Amino acid sequence: MTIRVTWRRALVALLTLAAAGMLFAWSGIFNVAASSGHWAITDWFLHWTMRNSVRTHTLLEGVESPRDPSGLISAAGHFEQSCAVCHGAPGQKASPVTRSATPPAPDLTETVPTWTDAQLFWILKHGVKYTGMPAWPTLERKDEVRRMVGFIRLLPEMSVTEYRALVAHDGQGGLPTVPEARGLVACVGCHGADGRGRGQGDIPILGGQRADYLEASLVRYANLRRESGVMAAAAAPLDPDERRWLASYFAAMPGLGGGARPTSGAAAEIALRGRPSDQLPACVSCHDAGGRRPFPVIHGQRASYIAQRLRQWRGEETVVDARKPQDVMPVIARRIPEEMIDPLARWFAGE
Question: How far apart are CA 243 and CA 250, in angstroms?
Fold first, then answer.
């Protein structure tokens, strides 16, 4: 007996299959318990699909320079605070709780070598659905993602001693132990006990900064009104008393402040007088050496950090609404000639 296939019969078959699938989902027979795990074929299919997706979207996004090995301390600090609980770290096993997830977070010492730098960048930036792997808290901070790629690329060969040195587990004795200092250990891991950023180009000097500015920055980081995935994770757990105490603690340290600067030259012109013809105000009209409210002190700040922030503010967007307070610096940064960013940063650093 021959059954003739028609469009009507094909449609009825598809609708029947769809109805059966909906009935199966409605019945609740499918076990969604993490404790049940996946069938081997299900696990293979999901990972195969994920790898194909990452490969394709990495090519579509076309990431340039996906790895930056120069910011290992800030990347390691964020990894210690936000990632090690699931993935483990040198000398530290992943939490048994997260190992009970389906799927559990992979051992990065095994999986990192199987991905390219561009693919790792895409995964860290966008996360992976249905795995518990989150996207980076702010998609605008590609520089932070690049530094994390640089860090995890070294994980498979990193010793316990090297890891502990990066996250500053050792040498933290003598720190205040008052209740408000709960977040201090995490802070000094990157910023150092002296507030000078452990000599890292991507970490700012906090010593001597205005206390009210530091406190307000912690609030903005925690609420993602100031973009930084690293600082958002550090600031979010802090309560108001802790933020206030930490801000006062670092502000009381020596670091930022005045000092003689040249009064001639192109960098001095922009800093001291601006370029009215280009609608570029003088930097010191807001950022004077004493720290005029509500602006931060940048005299004595690390030149590499100032330059990075200016380039981050310039960004890739072509339209900025200058009426929004958070968009003032992007507008100003775009009016500074690219070739003047580094000299201007060095001028404020006093180099």
Answer: 11
Distances (CA, A) of 246 to 56, 188, 242: 44, 11, 6
Backbone angles phi, psi at 89, to 5 degrees: -155, 170
Hey, what are 151's tokens?
């860090």
Give the residue from 127, 142, 116, 107 showing the smallest Cα distance to 50: 127
Residue type, 259: G
Burial group, residue 83, by CB count within 10 angstroms (0-12, 13-18, 19+): buried
Chain centroid offset of residue 225 CA: 14
Q: pLDDT tens-digit profile of 58-110?
A: 999 888 889 999 999 999 999 999 999 999 999 999 999 988 998 999 999 99
Other Cβ atoms closer than 10 A to 202: 22
Sign of CA dihedral 34, 36, 42, 44: positive
Please give the Cα distance from 333 to 305 (Å, whole number): 14
pLDDT (0 to 100) of residue 261 = 86
What are the C-alpha distances in Å from 22 to residues 8, 15, 27, 130, 147? 21, 10, 8, 20, 45
Average per-residue pLDDT for the chain? 89
Nearest Cα to Cα of residue 179 among 238, 103, 125: 238
| Contact between residue 340 and residue 267 where contact means Cβ atoms under 8 Å apart | yes
User: What kind and span of H or E run contains 186?
Assistant: helix 184-191
Closest-CA residue to 336 (of 288, 282, 259, 286): 282
**pLDDT, mean of residues 299-323:** 79
Tokens 């394709």 sit at which residue?
56
CA–CA gap between residue 194 and residue 250 (Å, rounded): 8
- Secondary structure class of 204 (helix, strand, coil): coil
* Full-model pTM: 0.89
Q: Which two tokens mark 211?
A: 């206390």
27-37 pLDDT, tens digit per residue, is 998 888 988 88
- Asked whether the beta carbons of 158 and 138 are under 8 A apart, the reply is no
Q: How far apart are CA 137 and CA 277, in angstroms?
A: 39
